[in-house]
Every structure is written in structure tokens, then in C-alpha cells.
Write a structure and sequence with these properties.
One of its GO terms (biological process) is fatty acid beta-oxidation. This protein is α/β, with parallel strands linked by helices. The chain contains twelve helices and nine strands. β2, α1 and β3 form a beta-alpha-beta unit.
């Protein structure tokens, strides 16, 4: 298992970061320490780089991600070795740290799901803000098939994406769903031909990146907070963020662009 940066490839162009899970021979598992460390670093870099306005997460090869490494699980190696308290700690500093980091990324993340998204791979897609799937993809919350549970937060993420009854069906059966079902249930927002996937994701990313970047980051924060605050406290937070937005340079530029019927040029100020 490589510990180099090539386990997740990274590129930045036109304010868009593209992150590619790059272990196609093993279907892009995300349970290895090297993958957790690399994705965590990439998210932290995006959080602190005002030039990055949106990210795309995809997989190399035919799969998006098979989730956990089943071979390592069977051999009791890596995060799957040790006594219960040791595995507890391994989950917290490994896959759960990854879940907190990706879900908490300051910029929007588009999951460009190029193929099967299974177990923790399905949950990785759910940690993103937007999901576009290739017609060759499918999804499975398949932990019960291995006699385990969604230890990465999937039992929290999935009901919020598709509702409790459908989430229960996926989690209790472990059955896969195709992209037509995923689209109908709201797990993904678009399904496209395999050859159109990255073009579609980049096109959506460009629309996001064209907007004032601080407003986009604040809007993402509000969307995340909406699930854990009551309405009154949420309105207080919205008022504070709106006051900051009204005093930004980008707000003044957006007003000028609107009045002058032109595209705005935003700097993040």
C-alpha cells in the first residue's frame, strides 16, 4: 500500500479542485491510513485556500469506491486489528475522521460517481454536497452483508438524503440500487452517460465557482447548520452572516454587475 500522494490525485484549475481516488486495482478503498491522511490534507488545503471555490471528488477506474478494504478486514490488519477498544480508536482517528473532514469541508464538494459506490464508498458520496452519477454506477449500503454496521456515519447521512424508510431498506437489506432508483429517491441529482460525467461535473462546478466565493462558503455553512439548530437560533446565525455579506467587496461588485447587466468578477473580498 503506497503512502505517497498518488493514492488520491489532485488538480486545481479555474478555482476548481479535482480529487481522484487512485487505487483502481482494489476499487478505491478509503479505509487505509494513507487515503485518510491524503484526503484530510486536501480538504484542509481547500479550507485555507481562497482560490479554491469548489471541489470535485471522483474515482479512477471502473469504481467510485468499494469503501473498506475487505481483504484487510478478513486478515485483521490496519484499522481492523486489535482489541475492541483499539478498533474503537482506529475508527475514530481513521474513517470517522475522514467523514468529519469531508462533510465539514468549507467549499462545496461535487461527487462525480463514475461507478459502484459500496458501503463506505456510498457514504463518502453522501458526505459531499452534490452527487452526479454515471449510468454505470450503483449504490449499496452493504455493511450488514459483512456482519457489521455503518461505522463511518452512514446511518446518519443516508436518512437525511433519501428519508428514513428508504434508508432503512438499503441498510437492512444491503441490496444495491441502480441509478434510476437513486435519482428517483434523491440520492443523486443527475445521471449521465459515462463519457459525459466529468464534463457535467465541471460544468456544475464552474457555475458554483462563478459566484462570490465567501457567499458560497457561508451558504454551505448555513445549509449544514440547518440540520442541527432550531429555527430561531438559525435565523440569528443567518442575520449575522447576512450582515457580513452586505459589507463585502463581492456584494458591491455583484450589485454593480446586476445593474450593468454583466458578469461579476469576484475576488473573495
Amino acid at each position: 500500500m503506497s503512502t505517497a500522494d498518488d493514492v488520491v490525485l489532485a488538480d486545481i484549475s479555474d478555482h476548481i479542485a479535482t480529487w481522484t481516488l487512485n487505487m483502481p486495482d482494489t476499487r478505491n478503498p478509503i479505509s487505509h491510513d494513507a487515503v485518510v491522511a491524503r484526503l484530510t490534507t486536501l480538504v484542509h488545503n481547500a479550507n485555507n485556500d481562497p482560490d479554491i471555490r469548489v471541489a470535485i471528488l471522483t474515482g479512477a477506474g471502473p469504481a467510485f469506491s468499494a469503501g473498506g478494504d475487505v481483504t484487510a478486514m478478513a486478515n485483521r490488519t490496519g484499522m481492523f486489528e486489535g482489541k475492541p477498544h483499539e478498533m474503537f480508536s482506529a475508527y475514530r482517528r481513521g474513517i470517522q475522521h475522514l467523514a468529519r473532514t469531508v462533510y465539514g469541508c468549507h467549499v462545496p464538494i461535487i461527487a462525480a460517481i463514475n461507478g459502484p459506490a459500496i458501503g463506505a464508498g456510498c457514504d463518502l458520496a453522501l458526505m459531499c454536497d452534490l452527487r452526479i452519477a454515471s449510468s454505470t454506477a450503483f449504490f449499496a449500503e452493504s455493511f450488514v452483508k459483512l456482519g457489521i454496521i455503518p461505522g463511518d456515519g452512514g446511518a446518519w447521512l443516508l436518512p437525511r438524503a433519501i428519508g428514513p424508510a428508504r434508508a432503512a431498506e438499503m441498510a437492512f437489506t444491503g441490496d444495491r440500487i441502480d441509478t434510476d432508483t437513486a435519482m428517483r429517491w434523491g440520492l443523486v441529482s443527475r445521471v449521465v452517460a459515462p463519457g459525459d460525467l466529468m464534463g457535467e461535473a465541471i460544468g456544475l462546478a464552474k457555475k458554483i465557482a462563478a459566484n462570490p466565493p465567501v457567499s458560497v462558503r457561508l451558504t454551505k455553512r448555513l445549509l449544514r447548520e440547518s440540520g442541527r439548530q432550531d429555527f430561531d437560533s438559525f435565523l440569528e446565525l443567518s442575520a449575522a452572516m447576512q450582515a457580513m455579506s452586505h459589507h463585502s467587496d463581492d456584494h458591491r461588485e455583484a450589485l454593480s454587475a446586476f445593474m450593468e447587466r454583466r458578469d461579476g468578477v469576484y475576488t473573495g473580498g
